[in-house]
Amino acid sequence: MTFPAELEGSLPGKRFLVNYKGEFSSFDDSFSAFWFVILTLATAGYGDLEPVTSSGKLVAVVAMIFGACYTVMPLTLVGSQFNKSYLEYKRREALLRTKQEV
Fold first, then answer.
1. What is the DSSP track for 18-60?
2. Matching Pfam families, A to Z (predicted)?
């Protein structure tokens, strides 16, 4: 959350990020906090190379989101095929059980 700066010698109208304990945040602005959250959720981590500009970070965020979607699409297909195979297995099992009872 942001609060108007009420410190001596601070610029009028300047805002600081403050955490829930009332301490100053380690993030310079909300965009830096957003960048940290997206980077953490994408499990990309802070490596040797990272974008410096806001536009570079925006491109990286878009790439992370598309990468996650690209990974999820095949997983849904695998899950769907597994479900079909499992239902077929259960059907055959029920059929065999019925034959044994007769």
1. B-TTSPBPS-SSHHHHHHHHHHHHTT----S----SHHHHHHH
2. Ion_trans_2
Distance from C-alpha of 25 to C-alpha of 40, rounded to nearest angstrom: 17
Cut 0.70: pTM above it? no
CA 4 to centroid of chain Cα atoms: 30
pLDDT, tens digit (0-9, with 9 covering 90-100), for 31-81: 777 777 777 777 766 665 567 788 888 888 888 888 888 888 888 899 999
Rg for the chain, CA atoms, rounded: 26
CB 16 within 8 A of CB 5: yes
